[in-house]
Structures are given as C-alpha cells and as structure tokens.
Amino acid sequence: MEKLRQTLKVRKERAILVAAVPRTGGNSDNLAELTALAESAGAVVCDKFQQKIRTINPATYIGKGKAEQLGERVKRFKANVVIFDNDLSPRQIRELEKVIEVKVLDRSELILDIFATRAKTRQARLQVELAQLEYTYPRLTRMWPHLDAVAGAGGGTAAGAVGGIGTRGPGEQQLEIDRRLVNKRITELKRQLAGIDRRKIREIDGRKGLFKICLVGYTNAGKSTILNALTNSDALVEDRLFATLDTRTRKWTLLGGAETLISDTIGFIQNLPHQLVASFKATLEEAVNADLLLHIVDVSNPRALKQIESVKKVLAEIGCGDAPTLEVFNKVDIVRKIGELEMLQTLFPDAVCISAKTGLGLELLNKAVLARYKGSELLLHLSSSQSNSKVQSFLRAYGTIIKETYHDGFVVIDARLGQNQLAGLKRLGPESIEINGKSKELFS
Length: 444
Ligand SMILES: Nc1nc2c(ncn2[C@@H]2O[C@H](COP(=O)(O)OP(=O)(O)OP(=O)(O)O)[C@@H](O)[C@H]2O)c(=O)[nH]1
Ligand SMILES: [Mg+2]
What we know:
- This protein has helices at residues 2-6, 30-40, 64-76, 90-100, 107-118, 122-151, 170-173, 179-205, 223-231, 274-279, 281-288, 304-317, 338-347, 362-374, 389-398, 422-427, and strands at 14-22, 44-53, 81-84, 103-106, 211-217, 248-253, 259-264, 292-298, 325-330, 352-353, 377-385, 400-407, 410-418, 432-435, 439-442.
- It is of the alpha/beta class.
- The protein is elongated and about 90 Å long.
- Magnesium ion is lined by residues 223-224, 243-244, 264.
- The site of guanosine-5'-triphosphate has 23 residues, from helix 9.
C-alpha cells in the first residue's frame, strides 16, 4: 500500500471551490484558506464562490437548484473537481456528484489528501493512512461505484498510478479490497503505530533533564523558519499549508550557554478532522511533553486572532491546554495594519515580536525563553562532597557560581540558579542547601 502511494504524482486538477454559509451567519472568509489548501494539494483553482444557504439540504447540502447551477459552472470552467469548505455526508457527496457530474470533495478529505502527499516518515505515512481509512472508509462503499463511473479510468491502478485530488492514498485500493480487509488493515496500522508510540515515549523519556521547547501554531505561521533561524538547521520551509508533517528536534543553546531541545511539529488548522488529531497524537507527543510551548502566530494574517483560538482549541484537545506557553508574534516585517498588531499585543502583553525572515527580535526571544527556562532567580549556599563533581558542573552549566571554598573534603558554594533548575540540582545530591538565606534543607 505504502509503496503505491509513494509513486503517485500530484495532478493539476481544475477545481471550483464552494463555501456554503448560513444566511444568518454573516460573511465567512474561509474561501481564502480553502484556496490555499486546494493549491497546496496541487489544484488549479478556476472559480470560487460563497453560497448563502437558508437551511442545509440533507440531500445536497446546498439547494438542488444551486447544485444545478454549480453543475453549469463546472462545464463552463471545464472543472474536474468541486471542493466544499463544509463537511459533507456520504449521501450529500453522492447526490451532489449525480447533479454536478464531477468528483466532489469536502474540506476534511482535502486536508487528508494534502497529508497523504506530504507524509515522509514511516510514522507520518501510517498516521495518514489510518486517518484516511477512518474518515473516508465509511463513505467509500457507497461513494466509489458512482465515482468510478464519473472518473472513468481515473481510479488508480498500480499501472496508471495517477490519482487526482482525494483519490490518493488508500482510497484507490478501496476499489479492490473488501470491508474485512480494511478493518484488518486498520487494526494492523494501530498496532504498528502503538509500537512507534512506545519507542517515542522511550525517546522522550531519554531526554529527561533537558529543557524541552515545542513550536506550535497555525499552519504556515513560520515555525520551521524559526527553527532554522534559531538552530542553523535546514527544515523544509514552504509557502504552503502543512509543509511540515513530522517532528524535528534540534539542540538550541540559549544566551549564556544553557542547552535546550526545540521541536518543530505539524501545524494546526481550524476544524482539524478529529480523526487526524487522534492519529497525530504521537507526533504531537512532543508538544504534550514540552516544558515550554512557543505559540507562533503569523501576525500579518488578518485572521491571526481566529487562528490563535483554533490553536488553543487543538492544544486543549491533545491535553496541553494548560502548558506553559509563550506567544511569539512572527512576520512583523510584513504587518500592514499596525492597529491590529497593537490590539493583539494588548491581549497578549508578554508576546515577543519577531521576524524569523529578517532576524528581528530573535535575541529578545532568546532572552524571553531564557527567563522562562530559569524561572525566578534564587541565591544558593550549599555544600557538597568534593568527590561529587557533578554538583559543580551543574552549577557552572545552569547557574552562576559566585564563590567556592574547599575544606575537609567538602566544597562550599555560593551561587545563583533559576528556580526551575533547583530540582535538577537536588537530584545530584548535595550535602546541604540553603535557599535565599532562609529555608534550609538537609540531605542525608
Ligand atoms: N515575511 C516573512 N515571511 C516569513 C517569516 N517567517 C516565515 N515566513 C514565510 O512563511 C512561509 C511559511 O513558513 P514555514 O516556516 O514553512 O511555516 P510553518 O509554520 O513551518 O508551516 P507548516 O509546516 O506548513 O505548518 C514561508 O514562505 C516562509 O518564508 C517572516 O518572519 N517574515
Ligand atoms: Mg513547517
């Protein structure tokens, strides 16, 4: 299965985009995002429009008459796919395809399709395949016989492995395999992913002691660009949605020399299909386990505030809604409406403004992270066995030694250390420790 998918090429399909909005719901500007998604999937957008609807038609979502008009537009623009911003039921897809006579996709299928083309690592491929099977499969049994007639030879076979949008991935094999096989495959994928999960948890456990930072944020906010700028690496940066699907971790040395691990991971999007959130949990494990989340916001985007809200929602879903977070306002070099930036700054007064592209503010970001890393500074007076050199090395690496004197096989040290490093120091077993000249703790 995996082999076949790798050989598929992105076909430039001509797409018409439709965002249906309830008449009372005001204007939605989701078309801009849907356009970016469609283009990221390799489509050529030849027409797009917003359709006000009074009620959702159970058969065709938009009204039957509107669907017929859409069919005419498809012919006029010679489109071969219609993509809805809304999530459609299997029945709605089937009915719409009857009227429109080309393939119809909904937003979630489009996102899953982008993921299918981007998945590089084994884990990402398995996760995408699982999400596709779980989301698409219930729709396939009724959808494919009809689609097959519409798409003609378009249904991918190993020989003509040219899948259009939405037909990449396991959808193609669906034509040949029965329900029993799909369920078996789902079980097998879950088993393999669980194995990777366990390895991942071990990997993360192995990094205990190091301060872990995770870049999170809306897709295209600039997370990979920031990782590259901070750590001199070469993560893929692209002006498309979901450029990054897997996690990358790099060492990042803060000012003063403290070493941290910083991870770049998959971007979020509003209304992320929950099957995807579920199966990407392992990838997002980095975020769940981080000591600090850097929430990257593209403040040049007019929907920045909405995007912040969507990210927070997903963070809550994966169980790190309360994690320590620092907002980072990126792309300040191309902000046009200063008023909007100022409004965001009043909502997030601690946010650090940067431009990953020009390097502006990166030092400030480093300092802000360092402050979080250290926590408030403590004054320590401690003694430790001279044979335990780890205590001194730790203080040299993470704090500032003010004075050290030796007697009777012991070293007595005055030092400054961030609150957050105290636990690490205690683990190394100094003989006694006095904090800020007040509380005294003794260790046997
Ligand atoms: N002008 C400007 N562009 C930026 C800045 N940071 C990133 N970009 C551009 O924004 C686009 C997206 O950047 P990425 O780093 O790929 O974004 P990402 O958050 O990793 O995106 P995904 O991996 O898709 O979630 C690229 O075209 C970058 O060159 C910035 O500070 N200023
Ligand atoms: Mg990225």
